[in-house]
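User: Structure tokens for both sequences below?

Assistant:
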Amino acid sequence: MGTITVMTDNQKEISLEDALDDCLDRILRGQTLEECLKIYPQYAVDLKPLIETAMKILSLTDMSPRQEFKEQLRKLLGGTIEE
């Protein structure tokens, strides 16, 4: 992905990568995707799929093993696994 920069209202350059980083931080702090895209309308078309993909990846980190798996592993290891 090439670097794209634009001038914001206060004439500070911001790249697509920086906008993505800022949006991800904002979303993790509770803002919605739509709110973030309004902050960077010049990147909205590019940011939306990137943010959606990042959020899907982050949601995968919340996975935990099923209880059945834990029980089988506990039996296999002789009951040494703690909850």
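Moving on to the next sequence.
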Amino acid sequence: MSIIPPDAVGKNIDLAFAFADAILNDPEMLTRIPDGATIVLIPKDDPEQAAYNIHLGVAAVKRGDNAYFLHVESLTTASQ
């Protein structure tokens, strides 16, 4: 998959901000993520974005990186 889906970067930025907000609300969640891991956010409500992010995570694993895949509820919830 070499084609970046439309709005993929913007959606991942939204997911990253939502993830940062979730950490502020529940700092304990960081204890479940291995040190140095690449965090791959998988939205449950956007199959195209989920497939793209899984592809990025698998590519990280193939490079030898430790990847932590994390399902997130919703991009629409993330932006509220």
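User: Anything stand out in the second?

Assistant: Helices lie at 8-25, 47-62, 75-78.
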